[in-house]
Structures are given as C-alpha cells and as structure tokens.
Specification:
CATH topology of the domain at 25-122 and 196-248 and 253-286: Aldehyde Oxidoreductase, domain 3
Radius of gyration: 27 Å
Low-confidence stretches: none
Structural class: alpha+beta
Mean pLDDT: 96
CATH superfamily of the domain at 25-122 and 196-248 and 253-286: Aldehyde oxidase/xanthine dehydrogenase, a/b hammerhead
Strand content: 25-35%
Number of helices: 18
Strand order of the largest sheet: 3-7-1-14-11-12-13
Length: about 775
Amino acid sequence: METWIGRSVPRLDGREKVTGQAVYTVDVELPNMLHAAVLRSTRPHARIVDLDVSGAQSVPGVKAVVTGRDFPYTHGGMIKDQPFIAFDRVRYVGEVVAAVAAETEAIAQEAAARIRVRYEDLAAVFDPKEALAADAPILHEGMADYPHSPLYENIPGTNVCTIRTFTKGDVQTGFAEADAVYDDEFYIHAVAHTPMETHAAVAQHSPADGGYTVWSSSDGPHRRSKELAEALGLPVNKVRVLSTYSGGGFGGKGTLVAEATVVALAAFTGGRPVKMIFSREEELSAAQTRHAAYLRIKTGVKKDGTLVARSADLIWDKGAYASKGPDVTYRGAMTIFGPYRIPNLEVRSRLVYTNKQIAGAYRGYGVTQVTWACEAQMDMIAQRLGIDPVALRLKNCYVENDTFINGQVMKAVGLTETLQRAAREIGWGTPKAAASGPLRRGRGIATTLKGTATPTESQCVIIAAMDGSVTLLTSAVEVGAGQHTALAQIAAETIGVDPTTINVPNSDTFNTPYQFGTTSSRVTFHDGNAVRRAGERIRKRILEIAGEILQTDPGRLSMVNGRISEEGVGERAGIKEVFSQKFPRGGMIVEHGSYCPAGSELLKADPGMPQGLSSAFWMFATHAAEVEVDVETGIVKVLKVAAAHDVGRVVNPQLCEQQIEGSVVMGISNTLMEEFKLDRGRVLNNTLADYKLATMMDLPEIVAIMVEAGHPEGPYGAKGAGEPAVAPTAPAIAGAIFDAIGVRITDLPITPEKIRAALKKAPC
C-alpha cells in the first residue's frame, strides 16, 4: 500500500510564500545593482532614421545607454528573427528601441524619456488574412536568411512565418461518402497571460570571461541558457540561469522577454548587475499574448453521427516575431481533428506575421484555440442532425488502443469516463430551471485531448545526507502549481521517507541537472520518472548500508518514513542512526536519475507518418457548464462547471483540484471578459482597470473530477493535468448559451453586445 501517493500533502513552499520569505525575481537584490528602463516604439512599422541618446547619457546616475547598433544580436528558440533591441526598424508598438541602466529606476525612466527618435513610417498590416494578400507590406524581407530549424518551413517574400500541412486518407472521397458536409468558420482572439508577477529579470556580465548570470522566473532555465548562448555565440557553460519563484506564467515566461533587455545592458555596465521589472502597462502591451486565429473546418458525417472526413484551414496571427509560434501552431493544428476517430483528414496551418504584439506560448499550446473551433462545430453538427451532443461525442471519441492520426496506439485513455462523469455532474438530460423573467438556463459540454512535448529529457540528483535528510536537485521550476511538492511525494514514496524531510531548492543551470522545462504538462510524468529511478537507487544503497550495519541481509529490510524494519523482526533503526555509523566523520549518498521516452514502444507510429506527433502520454478533459443568460442585457452568468480530467493517477488531490479550478476561472475569463482594444496595433486597455479579468465575484460552482486511467510508463501511473484544463471551457459555455437562447456565437469573446445583436437577428 502506498504511503504518500494520492495524499494531499501540504505544499513544501507554502510557509515561505504565506510568510513573505519566498524570493521572486523582483526580490533579487545584489551589490551595486543598477535598474533598467526602456524606450519603446510608438509606431507599428517604421525605419529608425535617427536615434539621439545624448539626452539620456547626460542624466546624472545613468551608467549605460544601449541601442541595437551597440548590441547587434538576434534571438529566437525556433527562428532567430528577433533583435534584443531594435536595429534599423521597429515592427510593433512597444518594441524596445533603446535601453538605459541607472542607479535607480526613476533615473532610468527619466533618461529613457529623453531619448529622441526620428522614424520613417512604413505600411503596416494588423490582420493575418490581410497580411496574406499579394500586395501586403512584408515585415521580414530577409526571412529566408534567418537561422531556423528545417522543421519550420516558411515562404520567403511573404508574411508566412511557417506553414505546415498534414493529410491522411482521402478527404474528397470521405466527403463524397458522407451524408452531410458542414463548412464552418470560427475566430478566437488574443488574450494576455496576466500573471500576478509581471516579467522581471536580473543579469550580470563577467568582463573577465565574457559570461553572464541571469536571475529569472523562466519556466525553462536550461533552454533559456541555451537560447542566450546561441544568440550571443557563447558556450552554454558561460550562461548561468538561476530560477526564482514564479508568480505565474501560463506560458508567457517560456522565452526571452525582460531577460533580453537586461542581458544587453549588462554587457556595458562593467560587471554591475542590472534589474528590470515590467510595469503592468508593459506586461499588457509589450510582453506576449495568446495567438489569435481564424479557423475554418469542413466536416463530413453520416446520418448516425459517424465522422468520416475533416479538412481544416488555419490562419494564426503571429505578431511581429516568431517566438514559440511555429511549434505552438503546429501542435495546435494537429489536434484540430479533436479526440475523435476520423479516417480522412487534411489540414493547412499558416502562421502569419503582423505588426502587432508578439504572440507566444499560452496555456494549452495551440490546443485551446483549435478546441474552440472543433467542439463548437461538434455541437453544431449534433444540432443539425438532431443527435444529443454527448451521444455524438461518445460515438466518435477515442477509447483504449485506438490509434492517433499518425498511427500511434493510444494507452491510458480515460476520455469516455470524463464525458460521462462531467455530463452526469451537470445534470445532462434532466430538466433545467424554468425561465424567470428575462433569465434563461442552458447547459453545454466540450472535450479535448492534449499531448506532451515528446521525446524530451529530464534528469535529477538525489542526495541523502549524513543525518538522513534528503535533497532533490531538479531543474523543474516551481511555477505555482506545486511541482516541487509532487516530485517530493514521488521521491518520498520511492525512497521510504517523509516528504517534509525533502528539500527541493530552486534550479540553477550550473548546479541542477538538465530538464527540458516546466512546460507541456510534462513535469509529473518526466521528472517524476527520473526522480523515481534515482529514488530506487538511493533506497537500495540505504538498505545495503543498513544491512552492513545491522549485520543482516538487505533483502530482508524495508523502509517507511525513514524507519528501517526487518522481516520477521520489526523496526531496527532509522536512517540517521545507520548513517552515523557508516559516516562517523561525515558523508552522503548521491544518485542520478534520468528519463526520456525516446525508443518507447508506446511511441511507434505508422510508416510514413510523422513520428514526432506521438506523445509520451495523452491527457483528456471534459468540461460541462450551466449558464444563465439575460436576454435583455445579453449578460451571461456561469452557474456551474463540472470539469473531469484524466490525470492517469492523482499524486496530490488538492494540487490537482487547484489546477482544475484555476483553469476553469481562466477559461471563463478568456471566454466572456478578456479582450484587447487596439488602434493600429497599439493596446488601448493596458491597465487592469480596463483589461477585464474574472474575479472572485465571477466564480461559479466548480466540481473537479479526477479520472484515473493509469499510464503504464508513468510514475505510479501519473500523467499530467495543467494545460488541457483551459481548453474545453469556452466551447462548453458557448454550447450552454445556445441551449439557453438558441443563438450560436462563433467568434470569441462572447460579449453581451454580440448576444444582443444575435438575438435581434434570430427568427422569432
């Protein structure tokens, strides 16, 4: 019987955070530290004709003023198209034109305000469809020369940053065999990540060896180190990245943002560290957003609801630079077919540059966008055919041993159970509350699947010290979801100790081993497997030492909560007692663990199909919503959301519930409230007074349902939970609105104005 898996162990970082002792990037204080401010572009697309920094240089307390000419490097994890500081051109409102380091933040801001720029305006384009036109202004004339992976095909001479296509079967034959073919268009808007902690970073340059040290709440310190090193032409061992606690990221801190500016400045401050903290206005208008997208889906279906063919044409709004967009939109595109068996498929996915704020990774990594279109159309198909929406999904959804679109055999598929349990919890099929004045009730449901970045590597080191305490060294960043607590539970279960005796320090690329990143819902599975392997080795070593000290066969020994027992004898000793005899003058046990699913039989795909589409594990989630719509005002109130998630095995129930509950609120906020107001690429609502988010006042009843379809290769059967939790919320709410008032909104956000307009057009 397991001791620690499946228990709501209190968070290891809880005391630090509630007492204010946790160190975030904004809390980093170093000797002789300088503070940064930047001048940002006021133009969406323009040449920099003249840049006069003399006014900034004359301000007392200014130590460095840096422009793109001074620091002529570009970065980008997938396509190196983005300058640290603009060179000769700006491509969006908010792009950094010059940066200042000074003794105080106020001095830096004053100096930045004194920089003078003369621009030559260029034609700009703000919509990705318009950017595809033959006469559209081209944002990146030198795109063909940008260093990039061969995975990311672009079309030089256009604004197509990347294009990906996929086919399986014969779509036209499938459409011909269908009893009905439905062709629908959808739109999903850009939203902000809006973490509580805005972007912040500290950097220090070493004039002696040319290296850099960076403090950041990045979710992938080793990838940040690699990206910086490649951009600057340095070996990785010259770029050290130390992780602080993260006050939220949701994908937005997965690439260089504030880090780029402080690294550029630090190169000119003679070894003095430089700190930059984004204001909330900068966070909303100059960080990164979710990709907006136009999604057209054509689906062929039999009268009984069997899906036979689907084609999709996706156009994603990239903004000015690539960031993680090439991979986000590829991964998203490959799930436009939903968690359903469809024999004939094709998709074209185009990522298009526009003169807008950069779009990047956002919770769900493209799946959130395509789930909106896929599930909204599933509801529309059900309504057109007169089939219950739950029944239509159950008829077509993946079950155990089905094959994904590339032929990978899917294991640990709890999708059916998520559909059934969410529907049951929301009262699907039972009578709803009767109309009360202008208020109408409705229910909706939506489901999704999400893979994980595969194959990726995770490594860890576990140290058992002379007093029996344990330290887990991992580069899995604690981004607020309890990653360190879950890994400590896995370590505790495997070794046989109490998780509260385990210390998990924040990561440091010079001292904690490689890990791909706290991204793609991969930590519990990948890092958990690495921890389990290291833990098994540590446990074996401890029992071998105990056998030596206690003069018995180690095979007769077991350990629970740090106490060692012998078969047929009972408790014999604790780790500390055994180690004190083994290491009378000090010592420790050190073991390494690593995990990468490369080579797993579970990843095999059909010959000729993209092997990279296989996932180490698949996550499935279904959300069912009940809403109340006021037909006079158009206001939607979400009353209840039942959120059922297949997590493989629950390591910590409370952490899982919190992940799901937070995601539901995020999904409601995305669906009904959040929206950028733009004027030629300039964000008009760049404060939280104007950029509306869901608050505690908007919370519905949320029922988190954990489905446990244990994974054969997961640590104790666990998979992941973080990313898919946002994706089904929007289509579930949209379906509930249709159920309530009979109008279908196909473009997000769903606002009272859109509902009132739709009701006016609806037949009486």
